[in-house]
TrEMBL record:
A Pfam family: His_Phos_1
InterPro entries noted in UniProt: His_Pase_superF_clade-1, His_PPase_superfam, PGM_Phosphatase
UniProt name for this protein: Broad specificity phosphatase PhoE
CDD domains attached to this UniProt entry: HP_PGM_like (cd07067)
Domain of life, per lineage: Bacteria
Amino acid sequence: MSTPTGNDPTTSRRTVVHLLRHGEVHNPGGVLYGRLPDYHLSERGQAMAERLAKHLEHADLVHLRCSPLERAQETMAPIAAAHQLPVVTDGRVIEGDNLFEGKVFSLGASALRQPKSWWLLRNPLRPSWGEPYRDIVVRMRAAMKDAAEAATGHEALIVTHQLPIWMARRDVEGRHLVHDPRKRECTLASLTSFTYLDGRITSVSYSEPAADLLPIGKSKKFVAGA
């Protein structure tokens, strides 16, 4: 996918940075796990990771970067093995900090029904329950820039989480960061791909290579805590 620039000013160097959301996590209790340790891929999540490795088998990947959380590392593992590339663990692409972390959001037991939680919802513009959206954008911009530079003329892959991916996309597309989480187009094991020409992002695309492995009704839908 690379285009050598040489000495010809009319040519452009094309680079692609893929943001991959990790696969499904084993979470029978419906906990918003956020940055908590020891939340690993489910069997379905492992199948998603293998599917992504197959999907990216012929991609021109030269640089891999990953969130430090187990679910992201486990999603990256078969891809890294297939391409025989080292993985840079990057704390800048970790899940957003969230004060609801560790609370239950399953049907009939949602933490949002508890009056003591309502104070955390006082300002959805920031948001008041977690890491400011703008802070997530800043760290994602920096990590993506580093990945693009490391893969100049080729492709890079970053395994990260739904909220950081959605913030990066809304930022690039010039949309307000405040949004309805239920309407995020960033399902499990999905790819949001940013094309750079000479260091500038020129387009964004989205795909779901593991759509058939998703739980029924989950395509393009929000999953809390993922």
